[in-house]
Every structure is written in structure tokens, then in C-alpha cells.
Amino acid sequence: MPKHAKWLIGGVWGTFMLIYALISFPNHFNFRTAGTELAYSMQVMEYHLRGHLIPRQLSVTNPFVDTEGWRIDSHASPSVITALPFYWLGGAWGLLVHQWLMIGCMGVGFFIYAYQRTGLWQAGFWTMTHFLGMWGVYSLMGWDWHELVCGIVWMPWFWYAIEQKKPWLFFVSWLLFIGGKENFTLWGVWIGFILMWIYRSREQRRWLLIGTAVALIWFVIGYFLYKGGEKGLSRLYLYAYLGAKDPLAVVEGRETSVSFSFFSVVKTILLRPQFIWTLLFESPRLDPSTFELHWAVLWSGGWSFAVEPAFLLLLLPVYLYKLLSADYLLWGTLYHYSMEFAAILPLAVLWTAERWKGRWPFYAVLVGGALGAHFMSFSLMDSRYSKWYDPLRHRWYSREHYCSPYSYWKIHEGLKVIPREASVSAAATLIPHIPARLEYYHFPATKHVDYIALLRHNTAPWPLTPAEMEKYIDSLERAPQWEKIWDRHKLVIFRRKKGSE
Questions:
Q1: Which residues are CB-contacts of 283 (< 8 A; sequence separation ≥ 6)?
Q2: CB–CB of 223/186 below 8 Å?
Q3: If 106 and its partner were Cys, which of 64, 153, 398, 483 is the partner (CB 3.0–4.6 Å)?
């Protein structure tokens, strides 16, 4: 590889690492990270560090735990062990650094895979550039930390290991991939079968068969270990409506919800293909983000499916997972829900380009895929259909992204008055700044806590409105069982009086 190529590759990789640092770290510094992801992940890590293999009672995920009683248990994600040292060293900041480095590692993986497959550093450069410009990566970096990154990062690495016939690397990267999240186990089974169809050598198929069997076994074990108990809430409830006689009536609230049943859902998928096909293009609530997803995929290299349909087959479970869900957040391009596309589309474009290796269309396809992904990413940063889209999280090039109505240092000065192991409830954007503990709650859940920490004039106090949050603060100031111990720099902290319930 010529010296100028190394400088170009390193320069582009470093530039995007800087951009992603400018997206992720200012968000936390400016109080845009949230309890439902970052603080949730911190509590998971806290359980693991204290010797618990299976985290339970993750109270921070449910702000209504006082009244509704259910809880959301952790994902089946043993691969988060790779993030534990980062959390141990740096808490919330450590997790964000871990995620940032994992994206960089994934970019390197795409370069090495494409370079070794084609023998051309230019192919590695454009495949890496394609990945680093994907909207799925921008969305992930703009939304806290998620255990998904512990698995998806290994996608290009196990492809590389298969083709270069490195069994140790294949099994390590494969196990970390399927251990990233519970749906990756089922996706892994599907990927294993597709790759056994693509790769024909006996040795490669044997590895893939073993990997597929392990993924299936882990899915069964993980489901029963992590699905929750009598009051647990499994993510499978998002697909329960498919088992009803009239699924749309359940989604629209015209009929009562039904319990999840594998048999009923599979029956609907197999016996009502026209209905399932419709859901892939039109969401149950007519949300336009479904179209936005297909448009983004097409611009970012989805056109390569016409030449390499195997990659569309690889993404079929992802489409079903996203578009059959009753949660409209999954239908679009927001948050971490599109990283699977970022992992597959650069590979699809690379394989398509190889058909013209040695001719000008080879580079046209690679460059076109990369530039299309970048164009789509900047287009989505400008506007998205999702009502939850916050442009301040993503627009690293805007001055407002680096501004906050709160002072990080002054807020943390006040948070020091809360004892390390005291039970605490805090506002959504404040709780990731409080060290995790077993008694860790998402406001307005306050029944089991001794301290409450809130931000005045909070414009994003989910699940409350700004007006509701101010009313809560006023009521706490008058409540006989609470005493205000801090009220400076827009941070207010209450402590439960001794002997009060």
C-alpha cells in the first residue's frame, strides 16, 4: 500500500472519529442523554460489577413504577462484558468512549475486509467511508449508549474471518455478535443459513453450521433467562397484535390487546402474506417514517440488491423486526434502530462493484454508494419525520449543539450532596449524571427513594411536559415529607425527612 494511501485512509477515519466525538460527548455534557438508555445501561453495568449475571429490577427504565408495578428487564446481551472496564473506569463517560471506539473498530473492519477481499486499498477506503457516512451510525452516536454496539461491531470481522479462513477470529467475533442483543441471535441463525448458501467450502460451512446452532441455543437460553417474571415486560409484546383476529383493531385501540403467542404470530405471517406485505410499506398508524426508511436504504446503496439479492435476504429479519412492530419508533431511521443497515449496505455495494473489477464501473459503484450514504445522512440531519427527532443531538456543525441552559460543572457540584448509595429519583436528562446504584429511579417514580433531583425550566422532562415538571417541583416544595437541600443553578434536590413515608 503506498504511503499516500495510508495518510488518506487514516485522515478520513480520524475525521469521522472526530465528528462522532463532536456528536456524542457534547450531548452528555449538555444534558441531552437520557434515563431510558444511558442510565438504564449504567444500572445494568452496576449489576454486573456487583456479581449479578442476570440484572433484574431495572427500576430506572420505568418512570411509572409506583403506579403500574411492572418493570422492563435487561436485554440478553452478554457481550456488554467488553464495556465493563470502560464503565468501571469512567461511568457514563466510559460507556460513551467505548461506543465511540467500537464504531472506529467497525470502520477498520470494513477497510480490512474489502482490502483483503479485492486486493485494492481503494476498495477498502470507499467501503470504510461508506460505513462511516451511514445515517444509522449518526443516529446511534446521537442517542446515548446502547448494548447493540457490543455485537454489531463484529459484523465485518466475522465476514473477514470466514473468507480468510481464520477459525479463532470467526468464533470469537461471531459469539460477540450474537451476544450483542437477543434479536441478534435469531438474526444470526438467518445469517448463518444465508452464508452457508453463499460460501461453498466444507470448512466454511462447518463453522457456519456450528455458529448457527450456537445462536439458536443462545436464543432459547436467553429468552427464558431474560424474559421477565409475572410482572415482567418482554419486548415481544410489541408483536403480540399480529396474533389477533383483527391486528389493526388492536393497534388502533378498538379491541383489547392480546398476549404474545409465537404460534399465532407465525400463523399470521404464513397465512396472511398480503397483510404482512402491506405492513412492510405502510405502518399500522400510517406513520410516514416507514417510507423514509425505504428511501434512506435506497439512496445508501439499497439499489445494489437488484444485483446482489442475497443481501436483501440477509436484511429480511431486520425489516420484519422493525416494520411489524407496534412501536413507531422502530419504523423509521431514528436512534440505534438502523445500525443493521449500516452493517450490511457497504458489503452489498462492495460485492456489486466486484462484478466490474478492473473497469471504471467498479469505482463508480463504490463511490456512488458512499456518496449516497453521506447525502442521505445530511438530509436526515436536516429533517426527519419522527416527532422524537431532536436536531440538537445530531447537528455537530451547528453552534446550538454545543450550548446548554445548564452548567455541567455547577450541576455536578450540587449532585455531590447525594450520598453514593442513597436511593434516588431524577429527571430523565439528569439521571445519567448520577452514579448508578441498585435503588435508581426515573422521575416521577418516588415511592422508594430518599432523594429527588430535578432541573428547573427543563424543556425535555419525559415523560412529563415542562409545565407538569414545574408543578411537581412546586408541590415537592410544599410537601411535608420532603425538605429542599439544594436550589442553585437550576438544580433542585429534595431529601425525604426522617420518619416520613
A1: 289, 290, 323, 328, 331
A2: no
A3: 153
**Global pTM value:** 0.91
Distance CA 420, CA 319 (A): 43
* Helices H / strands E in the chain, number of each: 21, 5
Q: From CA 392, how far away is CA 332, in angstroms rounded?
A: 18
Q: Which residues contact residue 426 at a Cβ distance below 8 angstroms, ignoring those fewer than 6 apart?
A: 35, 434, 441, 442, 443, 452, 453, 454
Would you mind telling me the total number of residues written for the chain in this entry? 501
Query: Buried b / exposed e across 348-362, counting CB within 10 Å, b at 16+?
Result: bbbbbbbeeeeeeeb
Which residue type does 431 have?
Answer: I
C-alpha 376/C-alpha 296 separation (Å) is 6
Q: Which of 467, 434, 451 is nearest to 33 (CA)?
A: 434
- Check residue 111 and give its pLDDT: 97
User: And the C-alpha cell for 250?
Assistant: 388492536
Query: What cell does 202 get?
Result: 466444507
Tell me the HSE value of 22 on the side-chain side, using a 13 A CA sphere: 14
Give 12-62 pLDDT, tens digit per residue: 999 999 999 999 999 999 999 987 788 888 988 988 888 877 766 677 777
- CB 88 within 8 Å of CB 49: yes
Say which residue the cell 454496539 belongs to. 149
Distance (Å, whole) CA 303 – CA 297? 8
Buried residues in 440-449 as b, exposed as e (16+ CB within 10 A): bbbbbbbeeb
Please state the φ and ψ torsions of residue 174, each to the nearest 5 degrees: -65, -45
CA–CA distance, 299 with 376 (Å, rounded to integer)? 7
**DSSP sequence for 2-66:** -HHHHHHHHHHHHHHHHHHHHHHHHHHHTT---IIIIIHHHHHHHHHHTT-SS----GGG-TTHH
Burial 10-21 (b: 16+ CB within 10 A, else e): eebbeebbebbb
- Concatenated DSSP letters of 94-128: HHHHHHHHHHHHHHHHHHHHHHHHHS-HHHHHHHH
